[in-house]
Amino acid sequence: MTSGTGGGRVGWRAAALLLPAFVGIVVFVIGPALVSVFVAGTDKALTGPRFHWVGTANARAAFDDPDLGDAVVHTLVYCLLTVIPAVVLGLALALAAERVTRGRSLVRLALFLPVSANIVAMAVVFAYIFDSSPDGLANTVVGLVGIAPVDWLGDTSTALPVVALVGGWRLTSLVFIVYLAGLTAIPRSVYEAADVDGIRGLARLRHITLPLLAPTSVFLGVFVTILTVQTFETVAVLTKGGPLNSSTTIIYYMYQVGFTGSFRIGYASMIALLLLAATVALGAGGAVLGRRLRRIRAAAA
Fold first, then answer.
1. What is the arithmetic mean of pLDDT over 252-275?
2. Model pTM score
3. CA quadruple 249, 252, 254, 257: dihedral positive or negative?
């Protein structure tokens, strides 16, 4: 009886400790999500209390919206300009950092700093770097090779690549950390056996390291893509979707629709719901592929 009473007390104490977190999740995550799902089926505007149920009308409008289509294209281009370079550079940095013997902690700390920095503050810094004046840092650098000053954030051909550069700079740090953890998890005995067989250098990277990192690569590809699709802060600070909406991404377009101009919060909620469905599908596909790769790796072992 004593042990049962003690177990009950521990259970109540654990419940009491978890209750504030549970209430916070319900109030600030689950509740707003359910409200958003309901509002997605209405013509609700942010500026008035009245609304009508429209069912799937917002979804049909989303598929017929050319501005949303442009935002989807811009987001895909942004992902290509961000995810692939971040994964490649992150892997290269992780491989290089693993070989460092002196000052290893300092090197890893320096490469970790970008992901820990406030992205809004960093976007402001990059806005100064890519200032259109001849005295801007980027224009000063290109001026050394005789290139005329460029309006980096005001030109439709350079605005989105510059925003992608800022996002990729931060994502590379995240990819580096995950790959470094993956490299650390590879048993040293595998490399020792490879050395005995004469497998070194690029051959070891191609036939041992990269295959063993395949599940990590799949996870990173999916995770970083999901993060990239949700980009907002860098667009809002650097370009505000311009010029001529050339850097408007899905999340920023959703913000424009719901919180500026027409204040169509119902339509914005439907865009968010469709984006959530696409994100879940991407995550599920990545989970299936990662599971298959782990099975192949286990069978090979």
1. 92
2. 0.87
3. negative
